[in-house]
Every structure is written in structure tokens, then in C-alpha cells.
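Possible regression after last week's pipeline update?

I re-ran a chain I had predicted before the update to compare outputs. Posting the input and the new output here so someone can diff against the archived version. Not blocking, just want to make sure nothing changed silently.
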Amino acid sequence: MSSMKKTIVNLFTGFLGVGKTTALRHLIAHRPAEESWALIVNEFGEIGIDGAVLSGGEVPVAEIAGGCLCCVAGPQMTATVATLLRRARPDRLLIEASGLAHAAGVIDELRQQPLAEALEVGAVLTLVDPRQFVDPNYQRQPMYRDQITLADVLVANKIDLADVPTMAAFRRQAEALFPPKRLIAEVRDGALEAGWLTLANVTQQQAYRPRLNREMPADWQSHGWTFDAGQAFDAERLTAFFDDLPRRVPGLQRAKGVFSVLGDRVWLNWVDGQWGATQVAWRRDSRFELIAPQIDIADVEQALRACFA
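New output (post-update):
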């Protein structure tokens, strides 16, 4: 591993037309004077437009057109990042992914060699239009859900175009997301704050306290664990762990977690005596939380660690 200082890379995601380019222009105009930045823009079409809009001379800009970063343009992204790092040596690299990008695949690419040698993945920012966010038709689209799930910072843009009930619904739904976001923000005209780029999620390996539903009894307990993103879990052991949870945690009310299994992230959710599994885009870490009248924290943690691959 090289001893050279790594460049922080922030990924920007968001569905088509949500205002990512406008937000990036605002960020660049308000970047800290002591930081050098570089930017990669991904356009799905063959003719790049965003790169031309953002090429104002403030930061070096490279463009990848003709495909999603994580599929058609994957090899091109590796070469483009390497060239930009070598020429500009930026403190921070911003990547604007196409609105049609499979954002989780982009993060996986950035964490693989040779890019992992030079990059540290920082906060992922996802922009949403709150009118779309509360629309079930958008929520049913896997790519849209993945972009939201992947985010460390979730930003509702164009809030001036949303009515009061829509914003109330956005806040309720955003607060209920799992894993929870490091920040949920509301802006207009893409007015992001540069400080949000430094936000990552909860410290890895640090236990955290999940937020309890206000309707739950006050004497119930909740506890959560996080594990490094590189820690893999064994599928069969996790299955046995979830099957055994009602015995291990008497009175169990809720258990859910996101785990790295066989190179993917799997959301396991236990509720009403049953549990199910779904693949999700979350990449920041693995985590688990539960709610019950009484929790033997040491016993549950030992059982979780026994599931390591």
C-alpha cells in the first residue's frame, strides 16, 4: 500500500433532471480555498453536455460519455480517474454519475485496485426531487431505490416546487430509511454546502443507538452494531443467526441489517415472526440493529461475529 496521501472521492447521484449539474456548479463556486478539486462527469449519451457546462476553468474536468460509469464506461472510468489524478493531483475528486447509473457498481469500482490505492471513498450525495421521492411509481424503480439507499447525504432539491403535504411526506419517509442517513437536507437551486462532502456515516465498528418509534414502550431497548465495509459475512451462518433470533432475544420486536455477503449487500429484515432477504445498494458498511424488551448485547455481538466469513 502506498504511503502517499489518498484523494477523497465523492460520488453524486440522482435521477434524471433532479439538478445535479446545477448543484455541482454551486459547490465548485463555494469550494474551500485551501482544497484543490477535480471533476469527472458521466453522460449517458454519446455527446456530453454537462462537461461543457461545468468547464469554467475553476477545476480540471474530465468527461465520460456514451454509457453508465459502472458498465459500458467502466474501463474508461479507471483510465480517466488515473489520468486525472496523475495530472491534477487533487485533494478531492467529484464524480457526477449519470441519472441512469447503477451507483453501487461505481462505488465497487472505486474500491477495487488499482483505484483503491489512490482513492478514499468519501460521502455519497444523492439529490432527489421530493415530488418524485414520495411517488410510489418512482420508489418501485430499482435504480431509483438504489441511488437513495446508497446515499450518506440525501438532499431534497427544488423544494420551492413542492407543496407542504409533499414536503411533510418526504420528511417522514426520509427519516424512516434504513440504513439511516448522516444528513437529510432541503435546498433550492442546488445550493449544497461544501461541508457535506466531509460527512461519512457513523464510525465503523462503533455501536450506535437506533431511533425508536415513538409509539413503542419506553422501557424497550434498542441496540445497533456496525462493521467495516470490507468485512464479509457467511450466508449460511447469517441464515442460522436470524432463524435463532427469537430464542436468543426473547420478546424480539424488530431486527434488521445490511450485510456484505458474496460481494453483494443483502438487507435482512425480521418482523412479525418472519424474515426476508433483499439485495440493496448500501456500501458504507455492514450493520445490524434490533429492538426488544431486553437485549444481551454481548451475546448478540458474539453471535454476529461468529457469522464472519
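Follow-up from reviewer: compared with the archived run. Residues 44-53, 201-207 have pLDDT under 50 and may be disordered. Marking as no regression found.
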